Structure formats: structure tokens, C-alpha cells
Amino acid sequence: MNYNDPIYTNLIEPAPKAPQSFDNAIEAVAAIEMLYIEATNFLRKCFGDYHAGKSPEGHYRAYYPQLSITTFTYTQVDTRLAFGHVGEPGTYTTTLTRPQLFHNYLLQQIKLLIDNHQVPVTVSVSDVPIPLHFAITNELRLTAGKIRKDARSLRDIFDVPDLKTTNDDISNGDATNDANGIRPLAPFTAQRVDYSLARLAHYTATDPVHFQNHILFTNYGFYMDEFVNFALDALKDTNSGYTSFVASGNHITTLENLVLTKTNKQPQMPTYHLTRADGSGITLVNIGVGPSNAKTATDHIAVMRPHAWLMLGHCAGLRNSQSLGDYVLAHAYLREDSVLDEDLPVWIPVPALAEIQITLEDAVAQITKLKGYALKKIMRTGTVASVDNRNWELREHTGPVQRLSQSRAIALDMESATIAANGFRFRVPYGTLLCVSDKPLHGELKLPGMASEFYRTQVTSHLKIGIKAMEALREMPLERLHSRKLRSFDETAFL
Question: What's the pLDDT score for residue 469?
Fold first, then answer.
């Protein structure tokens, strides 16, 4: 190996850029976008040259843009809003990626910072390299079998994703100030966001640009078919505000082209998006079964900073008074899913959020045409237990049943507590409305004929309730929806 080879001794970077200060959010976002475009264009060109056979002249590197703010006083700002301000004097910073995708989000967050603290923000080039894989997102030439192969490793020529710096330390409250005392400004670093955006595209087979601010999760494919029917009807209603329907494979249906195209090969997590121009539409994700899937989906969707996510799924009813098809509104969670124990210990309570609870109950009342005492006949509020063992009934179950009883559990599934816990962890408003599909403790198991009838009659109503709830949450002011209940002692300013 020749260590005098330029790739080991020569670092090639874009021309340096001086930091810029802005007291206008629009100008700040434009500067961030320019820095990101210049950096990624540099890496794309260098990779294109290398891929075309040009000998590398060194190690090619470009950096993420960075946003910083420095405050000098303890002046009290209006903290009724859960975000948009820092708590103490000091310097706060974050790396940023895909600013065009997050354009509206960045505008909102930066404007709040400037307005609340009356100081400018600084846009600069960070010291964090952009991994090649994230710079050439959607580039067709980086496909299996088309990457140039030679004696050199790609890692010698370009920066690659570094899992040591891709973590949830900020969200988990484990992040420490750097050597200069600089604190995090946002809940996710640029590399963490890029990693999740890539995973989202992989698992859902849709580009992250299509994700809406209101997310519905389900654990059954039946809901997807009903969502398609609803979406097509919504597009026909010119007063609905919905502009397109995006299916897995990025197949887009509009009013002008009401032809639904389905992908031949379903992704791991089929995902549909009923979009609005401002991103306030509804995304439905079929996460499948199990807490691992639930964590995977929410880990990655969290970087999109949605305004709410709800679980609409099936569950086992645990009370004799329940009937198949009844609804369960979770107001507490028994967490035996195991997948989040290291990130959010089980001793941490995951509270019900009044804004979500009331909205879901109102939606059930509107769709079922029941209210008051009559509503209690088909909907029960209580603890939902989530477990990681689908066939828990086949083992000695005296202990599990006792825990379910002690926790006042009324339903059991495998995803809801995970989704709620990750909503709590990532500061995303969350809720759960389940539908009783069997009662294992009372001998009412899903048999073929019974199950088919259940799905025909209940799935449509259940989905309509979820959509109705999301449409109500869409009209709720953000300062009410994103409550301070989900914020810790030392929070990031960014939502």
C-alpha cells in the first residue's frame, strides 16, 4: 500500500464559506439551502467523475450546513408554547440536511427563535461531513453492481455513514454539551435525519417528501384497502383540500388522473399518503405485527416531525363485558414490549394526552351516532397492554394474567405501547384506538367465518373514526396540540 497516494494525504473540499448572520427567517433558510446544494453538488460531481473512471486526486469531503443562536440573558419569553425558545444564555447549534424537504418546518422554527429572543441566527458550514450515500439520494447510478470496483475502498475516497454519531442521545436526554459548552438546538442531528429518511424510503417504498403531518398506524392490511376507497372519494370532493393520493412505489393519483396504480411488489411497510398542499394531509402506514416493527416505523417517521400519530389496530379484549367489534381508547399502557427499555425505562409513565383523547372520543361519537352513556356500550377507556410474545396464551399464563388484572388492562396487543412510548420520547402527540377482534380469556377466538364478518363490518367504521380524528386535530392550534407535557427540563428549541 502506497501511503503517499494522494487519497491518503490530500483532502479536497469545497471553497470555504464565511458564517452569515440573519434576523430574517426566509433569508436564513435560503442560505441553508444554498450551502446544502453546493455541498451535495460537489460530492455528486466528484462521485460522478470517479464512477466514470477518473483517478481520485484525494479524499473528497463536504460538510452539512449548521444553524446557531447565541443568547446572553435570562429574559423570560412566552413559554406557553412548548417550543421555539431556549431556556438559558449560551450558544445552541444543530446540523441540518434536506432543507428543501424541511423548508416550512425550518421557517417556522427559525422565525420563532428570532422573534422570541430578538437576536440573529448564524448560518455556517459545520465540521460534520456529509456521507456520500446521503448526498446522492435518489441517484440511479448508485445501484448494486454499478459501483466502480478497484483496489481502493470507497471509504478511502468519500465519507460514509458513521453509526457512532447516528443516535438518539438528544431525544433520550443523554446528550452532553461539547467542549465549548455548545448545546443542541434540535432533537436530531443531520446524520440521524438522513439515516431515517433513507430507511423510510426503503421500508415504505415512498419518498419522504410525500409524508404528511398526521400519521395513522395499523397492523392489518384491510385498513389499506379502505383508505384507498376513502382517498379516491376525497379527491373527487373539490372542497376536501386533498390534492393527491400516493401509493407505495411513489404512484401518484390526482383528480386529473384518477387511475390507481399499485406496485407489484409490496414493501415491508406499505404506506399511503392522502396529501394536502401544506402537508396537513394523512399518511397511513401498515406496520405489520409486533413491537419491533412499531419501533422501527416510529424511530424513522419521528424525524419528519409530525403533529400527531395514532394507532388504529386490532386487539384482544380482556373483559367479559366487551363484545367483538367494541372500541378501546387507551388512557394508560402496560409496557411488556421490551424494545424501548434502554431508551425509555418502563418506570417512566406514558400519559394520555387530553387533546388526543377528547378528539378520538368525539370522532367515535360522530361516526357511531352514539353519545354519553350509550357510547360506553361500544367503547371502553382503560389500560392497553402491549407484549412481545404473540402466543403468550400457549405458555403458563397465571403470571401474565395477574399482571394484566393488576394493571386494570382491558385490551392486549403488540404495538400500541411502543408507538405511544416513542411518541412520548420524540415529543410527538400520540393516541390509541383499538378494535376488539377476539377474547382469548373467554374462549372467543377469531374463527374464519366470524373473522370475515368482523372485518367487513368494523374496519370501515374504525378507519373513518381515525380519519375524522386526524381532520379535527388538523384544525387544532399547534400550541395546543404540542403541549408542554411532552417536554423535559432541558429541551431543544426546535419542535
Answer: 97
